[in-house]
Design goal:
Length: 168
Amino acid sequence: MNINLLETITQLRLYVGCLGEKNQFGWWASSFFTPSSNAFLEPLFSRTQLLAQCNGATQAAALVHDERIGVGHVYHLFRLPEDLEQGLHRELHDPKFGNMIPDNVSPTRVLESLGKLALTQKAEDEGPMRIGSISDLYLVDIWKQVAGLYTSAFQQEKEIYPYYSELS
């Protein structure tokens, strides 16, 4: 599997997972990327704290995405095929991701980082948005377009839910 693909999706999941939390843009009710969360998680998950934070935010985000999009023959940033999920899990063990989300999260800094990952896309509408077919899940440039859509949505304070499916 393409390492660049996994790295891109991992970064995207971390940034969007963090920005969507209730103390940032409030798309979902979790708070895994806060200083108080860090103080709680660090003793329990000293070597895998980022993985624990990402997993917690992913579960919260997946619930909201599934509620808006539906489930069954669709995938989105927070619910992917098993091979991609396993690859993301391995990626989060890499120390290079350790400092991506600082202890004192600044939405501006995280949004800037998300924007650097993105290909320019503008979120015109709110809600669910079909991005492509399931085979497109393995294309890096499509994920960079998704990063652009999320960046635009956060900047415009719109909620979007990009997804992939075989059905249009």
